[in-house]
Amino acid sequence: MGKAQKYVLLGDATYPLQDWILKPYQEDKNLTQRQLQFNYRLKRAHSVIENAFLRLKARWQILLKCDDCSLELLPTLVLACCILHNVCEAHDNPFNEEWLEGTEPTELPKPCQPAPATMEDGRAEQVRELMCQYFESCGEG
């Protein structure tokens, strides 16, 4: 890859491809093995992230009731829970799997129709292609 890249967010197929949102290649297209591998790795990363948020919400169940606090307080509340969660994980504080009961993956609103093409599409495609090449160079995983 050789060139430092900006941070990106992971999106699924419903999000527009932007140079700051990585999304999988369309499954209905004739994909190369490299593109299939990219989609697989993106799906795995998304799964890890979803699991981390489930554990965070299970440990700090106040996050399940965030509609009880003001919008101004919400970022501080989430940050405090993240910091405390990481401290607990770093100190091997046991995670009780029973906490996960009633903590379902959150389905967030998604765009209801594809976003129109933008001027960013060419750059976004370049970023995705660079990441695809990078994943290929890392080997199986």
TrEMBL record:
- Residue ranges annotated as coiled coil are none
Q: What is the lineage of its organism?
A: Eukaryota, Metazoa, Chordata, Craniata, Vertebrata
Q: Which residues form the DDE Tnp4 domain?
A: 5-86
Which keywords annotate this record? Hydrolase, Metal-binding, Nuclease, Nucleus
Native source species: Bucco capensis (collared puffbird)
Q: What is this protein called?
A: ALP1 protein
The primary site where this protein sits is: nucleus
> InterPro entries under this entry?
HARBI1-like, HARBI1_dom
What GO cellular component is one of the record's annotations? nucleus
Similarity comment: family membership: Belongs to the HARBI1 family.
Q: Which coenzyme or cofactor does it need?
A: a divalent metal cation
Q: Does the keyword Signal apply?
A: no
Do you know which Pfam families this protein is assigned to?
DDE_Tnp_4
Q: Which PANTHER family match?
A: PROTEIN ALP1-LIKE-RELATED (PTHR22930:SF236), PTHR22930
At the top level, the lineage of the source is Eukaryota
Task: Please state where this protein is localized.
Answer: Nucleus
Q: Recorded GO terms, molecular function?
A: hydrolase activity; metal ion binding; nuclease activity
